# Entry
Amino acid sequence: MQRTTCWRMLAGFVVILFCANTSHGQALSRKDADEIRVLAREKIKGLNDLLNAISNEDLSNYERRYLMMNSYMPSTDQIFVNDGVIIEDDIDPKHKASAPGLDTPIEKYLSNFDLFYTKTETNTIEFTNLVVSDVKVDKYPFVKVFYTQHFKGKSNKDNTAYTPIARVAELRADKSGNDWIVYLTRVAFNSSDNAKAVPVTPKPSATYDSLQRKKEEPVVAQTTDKKPVPTPEDAKEGERVFKEINKPDQAQIQRARRTGIIKVGAGVAALAFGAVTYSMLNKDYKDYKNRIQNPEGLTSYAKPGIYISAGAAAVGLGVSLSSLFDFKKTR
# Structure
C-alpha cells in the first residue's frame, strides 16, 4: 500500500514537472539553440556597427537618422524588437553601473549618442569578450550576451574620455517558418541582477504596431475590367510633375548664354585683329610701291602677314556665327 502511494506521488510529481516545462513553451532542440546563439552574437555585432556608423563624420544627418530609425522599426536592418526597447544610458562617461534614472527609450538613446559622442573618420567603438549564454525559455526563447564595451572617442559635453565598461544585452527569439529571428529587447550594465533577470518584451508604440501590421499583411491582387479614373488631385499632381520634368534647365541656359557671349567677344577680337593687320600691311605696301620700280604684288610682299590677317578674320567670322546657336539654346 505504501509502495503504491509512493509511485502515485512520484507520477504526480513527474506530471507537474512536465506541465511546468511545457507551459513555458516547446523544448528547443540543440540545433535550434545553437542557431539562436549564433544569431544573437551577430545582432550584437550589428549594434557595434550601428554605433560606429552613427559616429562617422562622413555620414549626413539624414543618413544617420535613417540608420537609427531602421534599427528599431520594421525593416531589413532591424536590430531591436521594437521602438519600446529600453537602454541603460552609458553616453555620459560618468555612468559606469546601473543606477536609478538611467533607463532610456531606444529612440532617445540613439539621438543622444548622435548628439554627444564625438564624430570621427574611423571607427572608435569596439565590443570585446563576447560571451553568449545558453538559450532559456520563458514565454519565448531568450539569451543574454555579455561583453566589454570600448568607447575610444570622447564626450563632446566636456571632452571627457570613456573607460571600458561591462554590458549585458537581452535578446528574444521567434520562429518564422523554418528560420529563427532574434532581436534585442534590452541593453544594460552587467550586474548580478541584470544577469539573472527574465526579459520582458518592450511595449511598442502605435506607430510601430501599424507598420508591423502593414508589413505582415498579404498583398491581394484585385482584378477589374474598369480602367482607373484619376481624381482631380491626381491630375494636378501629374501636371505638376510633367512641368517639373520638362521645365528648362536654368543652369544649362546660363552656360549657353555665357558661352555665346564669350564666342562673340572672341570673334569680334579676331575680326578686329585681322582688319588692323591688313590695314598696316596695305599702308606699308603703298610706301614700298612708291619707292621701288617694278614692285612685286601685295600678296607676295605681305606674306605671311596677309595670310595671318585673313585667317584671323575667317576665324572671327566663324566663331561669331557659331555663337548664334548658343543664343538659340537660351530661348
Summary: Residues 1-7, 9-25 have pLDDT under 50 and may be disordered. The first strand starts at residue 86 and ends at 88.
